[in-house]
Structure formats: C-alpha cells, structure tokens
Amino acid sequence: MNVEELLKKYADGVLDFSGANLSEANLSGVKLSSVNLSYANLSVVNLSGANLSEANLSDAKLNVARLSGANLASAILNNTSLNVANLIRADLSRAQLRGASLIRAELIRAELSRADLFEANLSGADLREATLRQANLRRADLSEATLRGASLTGANLEMANLNATDMGRTDLSGANLRDTELRQANLSHANLSGADLSGANLRWADLSKANLRWADLSGAKLSGATLIGADLSNANLTNASLIHANLTQAKLIKAEWIGADLTGAILTGAKLYATSRFGLKTEGMTCEWIDLSPTGDRSIIQKFDSEDSRDFFNETPPTIRIIVDAALEHEANFALAGVYYQIAREYRRLKQPPTTEIGRRRTVFTFRVDSDEALLTTAYIAILPFRDSANTQQNIDKVVEMMMSKDISQLGLKIPHQVKQIISLIEQARNQALKIKAMKKNLDIAAKLNFFKAPTQTILTNSSAQSLIIHDNPYFGKRLINPSDSSAKFFDDTSNDSATSLLPSLNMIVDFIKSFHYTEK
C-alpha cells in the first residue's frame, strides 16, 4: 500500500489499516486521527507534524521514525517499537504506551502528561524538558536516560529503573518513587519535595542542592550518596542507610531520622534545628560543626573536637517517666487525653502525648523531649494532672535552689551559663503551670478520679543514659486493705498531700546535669 492509496481510503471513511507496510513513507503533516495502524510497519517513516490523535498504533514498528511535533494525544501505542524515534515536541498526553520500546528515543520537550508508560523501555532516551505530569512509569526502564529539566510532578515511578539517569533540575515534587532503583543517578538541584522515596536505592546518587522537603526517605539506601547543601527539612529518614554519605551543610531542620545509619558519613555544617540527635548509628562519622539556629543562619553553632560529635549524637533519647501506682482505666484515660491536650496548647514543648504502658497494678507514662535542658521543665508541667504534682514541683524547685546556692563554677560544668538557662526555663514553666491551673476545667475532672490520686514516681533520664529520681512518693507500692471490700485501695485522700520524698543529693544532681549534651550559643 502506498501513501496516496492510504490517504484516499482514509478520506472515504476507512480507518482500519492494521498490518500495513509503509516503511520509509513520507506522511508528514497528514491527518489520520483515530486510524488503526496496529501491527503496521512504519519504520523510518516521516510523520512529522501528523495528527494521529486517538490512533491505534499498538504493536506497530516505528523504529527511527520521525514524529517531531506529531499529535499522538490519547493514541494507543502499547508494545509499539519506537527505538531511536524522533518525538521532539510530540504530544503524547494521555497516550497508552504500556510495554512500549523507546530505547534512545528523542523526546525533548515532548508532552507526556497522564501517559501510561507501565513497563515501557526508555533506556538511554532523551527526555530533556519533557512534561510527564502524573504519568504512569511504574516498572519502566529509564536507565541512563536524560530527564534534565523535565517535569514529573505527581508521576508514578514506583519500582522503575533509573540507574545512572540524569535528572538534574528535574521537578519530581509529589512523585511516587517507592522502591525505585536510582543508583548513581544525578538528582542535583532536583525538586523532590513531598516525594515518596521510601525503600528507594539511591546508592552513590548525586542529590547535591536537591529539594527534599517533606520527602519520605524511610528505609531508603543512600550509602555513598552526595547530599551537599540538600534541603531535607521535615523529611522522613527513619531507618535510612546513609553510610559514607556526604551531608555537608545539608538542611535537616525538623527531619525525622530515628534508626538512621550515619556510619562514616560527613555531617559538617549540617543544619539540625529541632532534629533529634538520638537513636542514630554514628561510628566513624565526620562532623566538625553543626548549625542549630531555627532558620539555618549560623547564629547558633555547635563545634566539636575529634570525639565530641559521638557524644552529641547519642543513642539515648532524654525521657521523663511518670509511674503511677494504679492501672489506667477508660474514664481516667479519657480525662488524661483532655488534660494533656489543654496543657499542650500552653506548653509547646509537649509536642506529643506520652507513650503508655499499662500493667495490672501500674501505669507508666513516658515523655520524650528534644534536649536534656527540657527534662526538668517538661517534668514540671507533665505532672500537673496528678495529686503528686505539688510535691514533684516542690522537689524540682529545691533542685533549682541547690543549683543556685552553689557557685556555678564549682559544679564542674563545662558550660556554666547552661545552668542559668535551665533556671530560666524552670521560671517559665512555673508561669505556664499557673496559667494551666487557672483554666481548671480538665484538671478539675481529673482531680475527682482515684487514678490521679495514686502515688507516683517521676524519673528523668538524660541523653547520657543517666537517671535521676526527682520524686518518689513514700506510699508508692503500699496499699491498705479495706476489711469491708476485697479490693485493695490507696491510703486516704489526705495522705498523699503530706507525703514527701527524699531529694537526690547535690552530687547526684551535679553528675546528672554535667552529663547533659548542650547546645552552645
């Protein structure tokens, strides 16, 4: 079949040309929308500027074909061979290309938004500045392809092969890259904000200056990756492998990376404001200094000697444990949720509810805090729902008095002004506690329930794994049996009010505070 015959039949309403042999034909600029050319041989054909919208080209051969500027919107190209084809500026929006072969195809500035490229082979393809918004590239092979400056916002690249692919300055915001292969990929200056990279293989990838804000990199493999100057603010790096990764001056403000492996990594100059430094593997890590300022402007710098960084990035998170000598029941649990919600609105350091362990006779509430300095102040606030709050707060106040009564320099602390900082924070906590008590509503409800009248222990554990019992009610673990009732009950309501616990010694307090890991200013 020659070109004239095809065009005449098409003009007469014939659409089915499946299996036609039009190799090397010149069909530039023709209008063949909705035509059926499935299984046709169109190798080396010239279809530049042609209108093939909604055409069926499935299983056709278009190797080395010229399709620059062609309209293939909503066309069916499943299992089609387009190897080394010229598709520069072609419109393939909403096209079906499942299983298609586009090896070394030219797709510069092509429009592929919402196209279905499931399991398509695009290895070595040139997609510079192409648009693939919300395209389906699941399990596609894009190894060694060029996507520099392309837009793939919201695209699905789950389990795709992007090994050694050039994606410099590519927009992948909100894209799904779960379990994707990205070894040695170039993602420098790429926009990956909000992208899902969980479980992705990014070994030896270049992510320098990349935007990874709010990205999910949990369980990702980033060994040997370059993240110099990358923005990982609010990113999830939980259990990520960053062995020998270069995070020099990376922005990790408010990032979550519990369980991350930083063995042999470089972290010098990283911005770590409000980022947990606990639960990390840091053996052999290099870190000369970090930026702890809220905006990453270097106004708060922490410098390290050769071994200091290992102490700073400690595996023990600071915690406050309030142990209640009673099992938590539903009514008390409901009341407690209301109380801590009210408290959190006034006291911003209480970012999350406590973890709760409920035994048959005792309940343990564990509060995690961001820094050692916040231990005493958060304990001062966290105990508020309980009858023991007054005695616990009194003990904290006495600890502060003991710290003030001594010449601070005699305490042997490396940074004396940090003691003043703790004292200042306690004063703020006192004022906040008064405001919370003035609200009354939820605290009054809790005060009526037996659970909150039970004896308590309050134990602080700092980042050096040292513990300090700040309050231990002498009636804790002791119960009276009411002869008229088979169940055990606590001592009478007034006993807890007058119960006092022994204060820790000055040496214990000094040792506890000396082992804090501070933020230098």
List the helices and strands and how they pair.
Elements: H1 3-11, E1 289-291, E2 301-303, H2 308-312, E3 319-324, H3 330-346, E4 355-358, E5 363-368, H4 374-382, H5 389-405, H6 417-439, H7 441-447, E6 456-461, E7 467-472, E8 480-481, E9 488-489, H8 495-498, H9 506-514
Antiparallel strand pairs: 1-2, 3-5, 3-6, 4-5, 6-7, 8-9
Overview of this protein structure:
With 521 residues, this protein is of the alpha+beta class. Helix content is 19%, strand content 7%. α3 runs antiparallel to α7, α4 (374-382) runs antiparallel to α5 and α4 packs parallel to α6. The longest helix has 23 residues, at 417-439. The protein is elongated, with a radius of gyration of 33 Å. 52% of the residues are buried.
Class inferred from helices and paired strands = alpha+beta
- Major β-sheet, in short? 5 strands, antiparallel
Radius of gyration: 33 Å
**Amount of helix:** 10-25%
Poorly predicted runs are 481-492
Total beta strands: 9
Strand order of the largest sheet: 4-5-3-6-7
For the record, give the distance between the C-alpha atoms at the N and C termini, rounded to a whole number.
82 Å
Q: What is the succession of H and E elements?
A: HEEHEHEEHHHHEEEEHH
Helical segment count: 9
